Amino acid sequence: MNDKVRTYHNITIVNEEASFLISSDDSILKASLKKEIPFCCECGGRARCSTCRILVISGEEHLSEANTAEKNVQRYFGLADNVRLACQTYVKGGSVKIKRIMNDESDYPLYLRNKIMGNENIGKEMRLCLLFMDIRNFTPFVEHHLAFDVIHVVRKLFYHFEEIIKEHGGRIVETAGDGLYAAFGFDQNAKESANNAVDAVSEMFKALEQLNETYFKKYFDQQIEVGVGAHLGKVAAGDLLLHGNPHQLVMGYPVNVAARIQDLTKKLNNNFIISEEVFMQLRYKPNAVHTVERLKGVEEPFTLYLLGEEFLYQNK
Ligand code: FES
């Protein structure tokens, strides 16, 4: 039998001019959302962001102690003791007065409506294999071809690549000009996602070779080359509603690392480079050259494996 007695206390959120009774069973975030107070809560109340921050104005002694997860966030951001996470904080004693820290007028449509209506996937943390691909020497290509021919070439290439990525359980998250960003592992474990991503790149290189021979060289006098970088890590994946339609978002530090690895493909003169995290998951580990590199904007050095196109043919 649950011997905890539920109690109710008064809470005031000063910048909302809201005052109501809160149950000791509900976090401040949960109770506030029930009252349609548009709290930011990007991680869905799991102490994995800091967007639900509150400033405690009075009644600090009536709040639950910060748990380990909340203390980690407080430490990470160097937050003062009277700054708490609404999703982790409960009112246990008497009245409290708080202020919602992160807020502006766009919070209502952005956070409250979508979550209450249940039409936004607020996202979850996942270990994904992230892949960045870029067409090499794209600027001279654009310079010497008609704009719609350029679009045609990119469209044709990305169409083939998307099919291959989908067949290997991945999704294109973003395309930008001559590049694409894909993620693998939404429904797979880390090992499968890394192996599928590498297999997909192998297929993409083969498709590109064929397209070069039968199409790009033939009709546009152009040999297309790409550089690919891959990394595996924990990211936040969710949806953003744009024009009412869900748009996939995958964000986090590993995404930047994967993009930076791709940037190195030119400098290291190798068109497929993977991080050690991806390499260690491969069932077939090739005898690839590895190097330790500093990535732009990334503090620690990374061990990278230069697979290149050649490996992909040995892989079969
Ligand atoms: S909602 Fe992310 S920490 Fe509270």
From TrEMBL:
Protein name per its UniProtKB record: Adenylate/guanylate cyclase domain-containing protein
Gene3D superfamilies noted in UniProt: 3.10.20.30, Nucleotide cyclase
Subcellular localization, as worded in the UniProt entry: Cell membrane
Domain Guanylate cyclase: 129-262
Highest taxon above the source species: Bacteria
Pfam families on file: Fer2, Guanylate_cyc
Domain 2Fe-2S ferredoxin-type residue range list: 9-104
SUPFAM superfamilies in the record: 2Fe-2S ferredoxin-like, Nucleotide cyclase
InterPro entries per the UniProt record, alphabetical: 2Fe-2S_ferredoxin-like_sf, 2Fe-2S_ferredoxin-type, A/G_cyclase, Adenylyl/Guanylyl_Cyclase_3/4, Beta-grasp_dom_sf, Nucleotide_cyclase
Membrane topology: Multi-pass membrane protein
Keyword terms, alphabetized: Cell membrane, Membrane
Organism the protein comes from: Flagellimonas aurea
